[in-house]
Amino acid sequence: MLLLRLIFACLLLPLIAAAETRTVQQTNRHQLEIAVELKAQIKTLIKEGDKVRIVTNGKYGLSTRSNPPWRTDFSLPLGGMFEKKPEAQKWQTFRIKGISEQSISLEYEYGFNHRSADNDLLVIDKGQLEMPLSN
Questions:
Q1: 70: closest CA among 81, 60, 62, 78?
Q2: Residue 28 has what pLDDT?
Q3: Where are the domains of the chain?
Q4: Whole-angstrom distance, CA of residue 83 vs CA of residue 113
Q5: Are 90 and 101 in contact (CB under 8 A)?
Q6: For residues 92 and 34, what is the distance between their CA atoms, to the nearest angstrom?
Q7: Pseudo-torsion of CA 59, 61, 67, 69, nearest 10°?
């Protein structure tokens, strides 16, 4: 019986401990990087009544169940969400927090999953940014 406990302690406990993922929360850590890329990828950003119309170069959009499954020309109301095309370990989502005559306010979430590198770490950065409307 003592031998079974020893085997359990030596072999199974490290596996159980390794399965736990550590999450690191950050605020506005990637704000500048995301704002620069988003501004470069958005072709059109205009206010249409109480919505905002966004046209992108393809990296950002809406995932839909209809055809086409990835839309890069879309209109969203206050609270509407869009995203960056998901990558293997990263994701970015955006929610419209405010729409004015000159800009929109966005709340973003950026996530990076380090698990595939045998590092049970998930980094999540949340922040806000302002995007000027197209002229």
A1: 62
A2: 87
A3: 21-132
A4: 17
A5: no
A6: 9
A7: 60
In the block, which residue shows the tokens 């159980």?
Answer: 16
As given in the structure block, the two tokens for residue 58 are 């393809």
Unique residue bearing structure tokens 């000027």 = 132
Strand partners, 80: none
- Three-state secondary structure string covering 8-49: HHHHHHHHHHHCCCEEEEEECCCHHHHHHHHHHHEEEEEEEC
Q: Could you report the per-residue pLDDT of 30-51, keeping only the tens digit for each?
A: 999 999 999 999 999 999 999 9
Phi, psi for 22 (deg, rounded to 5): -90, 130
Residues of the chain scoring pLDDT < 70: 1-19, 115-119
pTM of the entire structure?
A: 0.80
Could you tell me if 105 and 97 are in contact, meaning their C-beta atoms sit under 8 angstroms apart? yes
Would you state the structure tokens that stand for residue 102, as one six-digit string? 């000159």
